[in-house]
Amino acid sequence: MSERFPIIGLIFHDFLAETSHVEIRSQAGRSLAERAQSVFDETRLTARRDLFEAFTLPSLGAQTDPDFRIVVITSSLLPEPFRARLDAQAQRWPWLSVRYFPPSTGFNEAARLALAEAVQAEGPAGRVVHFRLDDDDAFACDFVARLRAAARGQAAGQIISLVNGWYVTTGGPDAALAVASLAYPKVSLGLAMVTDGPVERTIHDMGNHWEIAENLVACVGGEGAWLRSIHNAAESQVLRDPFELHTLPENRHLGLDAAGFRAILGEKFPRLDPMRVRAALTGAAPV
Q1: pLDDT tens digits, 211-244
Q2: What Å distances lie between residue 38 and 104, 121, 283, CA to CA?
Q3: Which residues contact 225 (CB under 8 A, 6 or more apart)?
Q4: CB 118 within 8 Å of CB 69
């Protein structure tokens, strides 16, 4: 019998704190009131909801290893009807829960509290593997299974990165889908940490993912494990185009229709609807 240990994912979604998060460049230097106006703008909330429901939730619902938990970390100020919609998703998916925090709770503190509560719900403190995922990205259907295999035998404190994946965006006058494969060591998507005993820190306490020391990270190759969405409303992609910056021309597939998207990604992302993906990407306009 294989070793059983909890696998817990942390997703920040429409989160607001008194101190802006270092990775959200668009929020730097802005007051809490200014950031609240931006975060809770109805157009932005709609775009983030559509991305979350088109990318993240379907991919998690397709996992071949269903033994995992996801905690969505959001703001206690999240307005209706978005709060009710999020609560309804938690009722739909048995592995999903939502934790609301006031602005006085900082980003890293919220992650620690959410993870500690999820670990406590699992029973006596022991080995736990937790990971981070953005609310506009997706996992391949075997991500949890591969992460569990990679974590076996690892020491406490070890960070694990499944390095291979894809980017997806839209382009051209008809906003056709474009997909590119790439290797990205220490990519934030699915970046995981092994812990033993009570929760003292999370993967978010390690700071910007690209600045984590290489000797702390076990990089796992193999087939693609994640899908990152590239769009105008991505708060960590300000002033740059990751699709052009991170991918090679020979690895890009442009002008894809639904059949072309499924031919490349359908096996790993069986529940992603290409037309819903396209609609979410094109509707994610900047605020």
Answers
A1: 888 889 999 999 999 999 998 766 665 445 789 9
A2: 18, 34, 17
A3: 139, 140, 142, 143, 146, 162, 164, 165, 189, 190
A4: yes
Closest CA to 180 of 274, 252, 281: 252
**DSSP class per residue in 73-121:** EEETTPPTTHHHHHHHHHHH-TTEEEEEE-TTS-HHHHHHHHHHHHHHH
pTM: 0.92
Beta partners for residue 64, in sequence order: none
| Residue 140 structure tokens | 């391949």
Which tokens in the block code for residue 281?
């990407």
CB 190 within 8 A of CB 139: yes
**CA–CA distance, 27 with 49 (Å, rounded to integer):** 19
Q: Is the pLDDT of residue 29 over 90?
A: no
Helix H or strand E encompassing 281: helix 274-283
Q: What is the pLDDT of residues 181-196, one digit of tens each?
A: 999 999 999 999 999 8
Q: Coil, helix or strand for 72? A: strand
- Joined together, the tokens standing for residue 72 give 């969505």
